[in-house]
Amino acid sequence: MGTGMASILLYFIPFQAKWLYCLSIVLFVLNAIFFCIISALTVLRYCLFPKLWRPTLCDPMVAPFLGTIPIAFATLIEMWVFICVPLWGEWASTVAFAFWVVDAVGAVLLTMYLSFLLMSKSSIRSLEMVTAVQLLPIASTIIASGVGAEVAEVLPSRERATATTLASFVLWGMSMPLAAIVLAIYYQRLAVHKLPAREVIVSCFLPVGPLGFGSYSIMYLGKVTHAIFANNPDPSIAISGKCIQAVTLMLGLIIWGFGLTWLVFALASIYSAALFPFNMGWWGFTFPLGVYAASTILIGNELPSVFFSVLGTVLSAIVILLWVVVSLGTVRGIWKETLFVSPSPIPK
Known about the structure:
- By secondary structure, the protein is mainly α.
- It has one domain: Glycosyltransferase.
- 76% of the residues lie in helices and 0% in strands.
- The chain has eleven helices and no strands.
- α5 (90-120) runs antiparallel to α6 and α6 packs parallel to α8 (208-230).
- The radius of gyration is 20 Å and the shape is globular.
- 41% of the residues are buried.
């Protein structure tokens, strides 16, 4: 997720240069390799230890991390749309559409199943046990809606583009209000039981993710809707496209502002925790802040606004620097064999 977001930001930065484009391609390829290797290892893990699958699916504290799979896949689809479709043409857009369908179906199934799992299983019985990790499966559907808008923009068939855009609006409606509900519960948990332990304090950044991409998704959907309706011979439909774009931009700005509130909370939480140990949770710095940076850049493009464009560029630079720091820490942890811990015991 973090590597994919870094590649997207390098491509998306308003103040472009050739070396940034080349670096974004390098990270895209690197991310594809990472995704294939980790997916293969995950499949191998559950093939060698099939009894792990059920405990993983039924544990409300572990199962939400499955939402990272469609999110990571979505970053690959985005870069495929940005890099491969312009180079390879119509067949590449068809492949992007097929990939998006798989990603969207997987994201919706995880969102519905894991959200119901939180209600039906007895292992979480107090407010104190609710964590920001519960947002991960919901975020996967929000991200699928934004990626759907990007895919619709490059589809040659107007009918398919319209259907993809409508489906993406539905995906956004299924997930964004649900994320707001979970955020309200999580805020109550923080107010009553205070901040998480120092070891997992980075999780305070997770609420920025669905808000950042929720803002990005709805604005991109408005942009694509306007593009689809603009050439319609019926002037009323063309005007409705402009109205939808204006409404979605306003809604995106409001969600961006709400995300800013949670970003301040996250920064204050990190500051209050002082020094805390490096672990895999540090990757939680990269993706939430990355999608917030992407949303900021899109606002700068749509208004247009130099302020948002510069702010988005600054945030993107911070994300890329964080990616470098966390990547080096990960390599060091792998080398010293101190980083990875099995999330669930192997049943006997």
